[in-house]
Amino acid sequence: MRMRAAVLEEFGQPLVVQEIDLEEPKTGEVLVRLVACGVCHTDMYTASGVDPSGYAPAVLGHEGAGVVEAVGEGVDSLRVGDHVVTLFSPQCRECEHCLSPRTNICLAIRDQQGKGYLPDGTTRLSRDGEPIRHFMGTSTFAEYTVMPAIALAKVSPEAPLDRACLFACGLSTGLGAAMYTAKVEAGTTCVVFGAGMVGLGAVAGCRLQGADRIVCVDLSQERLQMARHQGATDVMIGGADTVEAILEMTGGFGADHTIEATGLVGVMRQAVESARMGWGLATMCGVAGKGETIAIIPRLLITGRRVAGSSFGGVKGRDQVPQLVQRYLDGDIDVDAFLSHRLTLDEVNEGFDLMHAQDGIRSVIEFA
Ligand SMILES: NC(=O)c1ccc[n+]([C@@H]2O[C@H](COP(=O)([O-])OP(=O)(O)OC[C@H]3O[C@@H](n4cnc5c(N)ncnc54)[C@H](O)[C@@H]3O)[C@@H](O)[C@H]2O)c1
Ligand SMILES: [Zn+2]
Ligand SMILES: [Zn+2]
Q1: Of 99, 277, 296, 304, which residue is the least packed, with the fewest Cβ within 10 Å?
Q2: What predicted TM-score, i.e. pTM, was given to this entire model?
């Protein structure tokens, strides 16, 4: 079939919206008609050419939500008409990692996905017979996508898809970092560094876990205001004296949980240093620049602080994204507050400009 998609043609150049070809789903695959798609940093990072693993031409986009239009052979988990959220982090339910409760990092299709192919090593995207690669296994800056069924979470049809799409990446990452990676306990003190989509999600996750005190640190007063709305009990502007300020707030000990959502290694260090002696857990969500490292004084670890990393918030996508969406429908998470701008597919590059200017939390592309 023919469809419109935003293609990364050349690194550092705007995406080019154009008509391309999409093949029908093969065994284990599903055709999804996209209804909405968020614009995320990872799309911009890859488009800029800074990402060393990037490739072109490719159809970017990974925060998608839509409706199943057709299923390939052997797909029994989804039916035509189902509402789905795309998962760049799939869940096959069979590999060693999927069978373990300790991780959400599925091993089933990693190699091919990383190279821009569907699990059988080919693409469904092309132009004049020349293949175009998939991105993050999702390629949702397009009217339609073909994806493995193991990378689609079936969500309640009651959830508006322009908000459900935010659960495809940043929001679930933040919520999950608090709920599934850190497993924040009721009554604890938590510090969240960063109040973008991920940090605000983490604030909400700490609240849902029953944290007593939630401190959010960011550079923007406006974003800190949003953090209060999501449940932060204290907010502060970040800087060189942040660790000192947090130690002061916690009787000199530090916080039970710190969650980093900035991507800055200097802030990651602060997250470790402001975690509590004895048991403080510092959870890293941010994606740092290639080659960057975190400096940690070993004594901080010997005296009981721990460090964890969280990919997609530790969320096992097919099982837990529907649960998180349900909590939104139950009124536990104000997702509307994150949807800052609505764009058409043709305006996708504006989404990058808005993100660059830190204008709003998320721009969402809506497909007519
Ligand atoms: N682990 C994952 O699976 C995953 C998924 C999505 C995003 N991410 C990463 O998470 C990070 C956050 O994503 P986002 O969409 O929320 O980004 P964002 O840019 O919207 O938010 C980052 C926030 O950090 C704040 N900040 C900057 N310097 C700071 C400082 N010194 N102290 C405190 N706050 C500071 C900024 O003001 C901004 O509000 C990025 O690195 C992103 O790549 C990771
Ligand atoms: Zn798996
Ligand atoms: Zn993302």
Answers
A1: 99
A2: 0.97
Ligand with minimal distance to 140 CA: 3
Q: What would the two tokens of residue 363 be?
A: 């721009």
Mutate to test the pocket of ligand 1, among 181, 193, 218, 226 (most ligand atoms within 8 A of CB): 218
Ligand 1 pocket test, pick from 169, 285, 292 with the greatest ligand atom count within 8 Å of Cβ, gives 285
How is residue 342 annotated by DSSP? Answer: E
Which segments in the chain show pLDDT lower than 70? none
Dist CA 285 CA 173 (whole Å)? 8
Half-sphere exposure of residue 349: CA atoms within 13 angstroms, side-chain side:
12
| Secondary structure (DSSP) of 264-325 | -HHHHHHHHHTBPTTT-EEEE---PPTT------HHHHHTT-EEEE-SGGG--HHHHHHHHH
With b meaning 16 or more CB within 10 Å and e meaning fewer, what string describes 101-117? eeebbbebbbebbeebb
State the pLDDT at residue 329: 98
Q: Residue type at 197?
A: M
Residue appearing with tokens 């007593």: 212
The closest residue, in CA terms, to atom 37 on ligand 1 is: 219
